[in-house]
Amino acid sequence: MKLRLIGAFAAVALLSACASHPKTTTAGTGATAATSGPAPGSEQDLVQNVGDRVFYAFDRSYLSSEAQATLDRQAAWLAKYPQVKVLIAGNCDDRGTEEYNLALGSRRADAARDYLVAKGVSPDRIQTISYGKDRPVALGDNDQAWAQNRNAITSVQGFNPQAQ
Predict the structure, then answer these.
(1) Neighbours of 33 (CB within 10 A)
(2) Does the residue 30 lie in any domain?
(3) Sign of CA dihedral 66, 69, 75, 77
(4) Structural contact between residues 93 and 149, judged by C-beta atoms closer than 8 angstroms
């Protein structure tokens, strides 16, 4: 009885080990390649390969050189995937009034959108929204948390991998 039980566990372990190998696809040349990483043009692709957010100084909506570099990569990525539409959400830290932070978040999202449009991305592909201080990415009342929450985050809208 114990031998059968051990044999059954060994068979399950062997099958699960076989199932963990990466899937392969056949490329147009007949070569076999492992599929890994995010789907091209997806939200995960944007996050992992380009960067989905830019950060702002306290009480500011102008783009730093680092923010511009991220947006340059986003513009190139969007040129590569012309069917992709994005939403840019402007965010603030939790200091200040709700009204003030909604307006500041809007200016931050607009600054990112305007930069992408200036780099050739059609404005029809970009929506903006301000969440003010309502969607923090970092919790805490300290400089590190506040700096992380002063951002504009670009997200893919309506991604369809079959449209690639």
Answers:
(1) 11
(2) no
(3) negative
(4) yes
